[in-house]
Hints:
Layout: E1 3-8, E2 14-18, H1 21-30, E3 34-37, H2 56-68, H3 73-78, H4 83-103
Antiparallel strand pairs: 1-2, 1-3
Amino acid sequence: MPSYSFINTKTNKEWDDIMTIAEMEEYLQKNPHIKQQITQMNIVGGVSGVSYRNDQGFKEVLSKISEAHPKSALAQEHRRKSIKEVKTEQVIQKHKARQRAKNK
Length: 104
């Protein structure tokens, strides 16, 4: 059920109440000195928790996809690399950097 903010125009008292839309409309008709106060909406930007995290099964699928496409961005994040592959990539990056510096 939604929460509504009300103001009493006679006493300027403000309060919040939880009720259905039909109940709110009926309440406002029976009490003309009560007005609904428009307030800022609460927006949820994101939800985190155990149920929203990737489980091991999905991580395994990502790993298999990254193994099939070793040069993809997905592979950079999820693929298990051997020590040899890591060292080879480091040497390649080192030589690329030297070549760039040399060509400037």
